[in-house]
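Hi V.,

You were right to ask for the full record rather than a summary. Here it is.
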Amino acid sequence: MLSHLTAKSFEHLKRNGSYRNILSILIISLTVIMLFFYLITGSTSPFWDEGEYSWIKSGVEYIKSDIIRSGYEGRILIGTTTYSKAPVNYPIYLSDLNASTISILKPASKYSSELADIDLEKINTLKPHYLIPSEEKYEYHFKESIKREIFKDYKIIFHSETYPHGYYVLKRKNMLNHQINSEGSPTSGKDGEISQDLFDESVPNVMKVGKIYTVLVQVKNTGDSRTNFYVNVYSSDPYVIYVDKGGWCSIVLNRDSTRMLKFKIIPLRKYAGDLSITVDLYARFEDGTCGKVDSYSDYVGIIK
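Predicted structure:
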C-alpha cells in the first residue's frame, strides 16, 4: 500500500512537470515506511523467542509468584545450571526480586569424561531455596545418585516443557518464613572467623565502572580441630557489582591457622547509595552437617 502511494505521487509530479519536491516526498515516504515497521516490531516483539536464556526469565517469574503466594519474606537464594550469573541476575534485577544466585555446577574431575558435575557440597552448604535447572541440563546432569541426594531436601514444583527451552523449578522442602529469616544468622559458638578490619580496608567506598578491585578475606580457624571451611562473597545487587568466579571457594585449616583469600569484584554501572559486599563463612562440623559461623558486610558508597 505504501509503495503504491509513493508511485502515484511520482506519476502526479511527472504529469505536472514539477520535480522540485521529489526529495521531500521520498523522505516522507521512507519515514512513513520505517514508522510502520517500528509499529509492527513493537507490537509483536513480546511474542518473539528471547533466546537460549528465555527459560530463566520464565523460571524467575514463576519463583516470584510462588513467593508472593506463600508470603515468604527475606532474601532468597536460587541455584542454577548456568556457568555465568549474568543471564540469571538480569531477570532478577528486572523483576525486582529479593534474591541472589549461585551456580550448582562444578568442573568435573580430570579423570572424568564429563565437563561438569552437580556440586552437592555447595548445595548442602548454602541450602538454596530454589533450583532452576534447564531441561537439557537436568536430563544430562541429574543422574539417579544425584536425584536421590537432592530429593531428600527438594521437590519439583513446576516443569515447563516449552520447546526448545524447557526447565524445572525445585523448591526446598519445609521452607517456612522463620527458616528463611534465621538461615542467614551465624551459629553460636564460632568455629571460625573473618577478619573484619582487612575486609573493610579492601572494600573501597568509591569505585569506578569497569575497574577491577580485590577484596581480601582472611579466615581463621578458632575451633579445636582441623576444619573444612566454605567462603561465599556476593553483592547485594549483583547486576551492579560482579564477583568473579561466583565468589565461592573451600579451604581446610588446622587449629589456630589462618588463610588469606582474594576475590575480584567489578562494578558494572554507576550507583549512588549504600551497596553491600558480604562475605559468609561456613564450617563443616564433626557430624557432617554445615552451618554458617561468621558473616560480615561492608558498603560501597558511590560507583562513578
